[in-house]
Amino acid sequence: MKRHIGVACLMLCVSAMSAMAQDVRITQEINKVSVTLGGSDVIIERNQNQNNRLSSEFTKTSRPCPPFCIQPMSLGQGVQTFGELEVISFLQGDVQSGSGLLIDTRLPEWYDKGSIPGAVNLPFSTLEADNPFRDEILRALGASDSSGTWDFSGAFSLALFCNGPWCEQTAVAVSALLDVGYPAEKLKFYRGGMQSWLLLGLTTTTSAG
What we know:
With about 210 residues, this protein is an alpha/beta fold. Helix content is about 30%, strand content about 15%. It starts with a helix and ends in a 10-residue tail after the last helix. Mean pLDDT is about 90; it is low at about 1-20.
């Protein structure tokens, strides 16, 4: 009887060690990251349930094109394309220091369902020239037009994303920003968007917190 208990305990210990060895890390060196956003510490990590599967609309592989066409890797000369690690670094650096903003270009109803921690919702359509509030938005992004022309020297660096490589909303937003003179070097494109973020089991937040 004691032998069976001992074997059972050994098996549990080995199982626990295996589970610890198989932790789902962000990279081999990084388990999780902490970012101070709006005065609160936010932990970004990956879902530790190794049996987790996507169950939302992000499981779909095929959507009608147009409008859901595959987007290019680059949205313009000078606009840097980001992956997940670059987004996390951007949060830790530019956003945390107050020099950058992570922009979710989707419509509010999508943003409310869940977004990347620290993301600000700025729907793509609000940046188009025919929006009467467009200039107010540009000023909120740090641009100045006191001289009669737009000055973006004090503007935020922006990393923008939407639903995934098949979503054109970020492309529309970046195009509108470039057209008005926003410097390309201050614009970053997270092409993978929410589909890639969720596929990797990374932390999300809702508008309610």
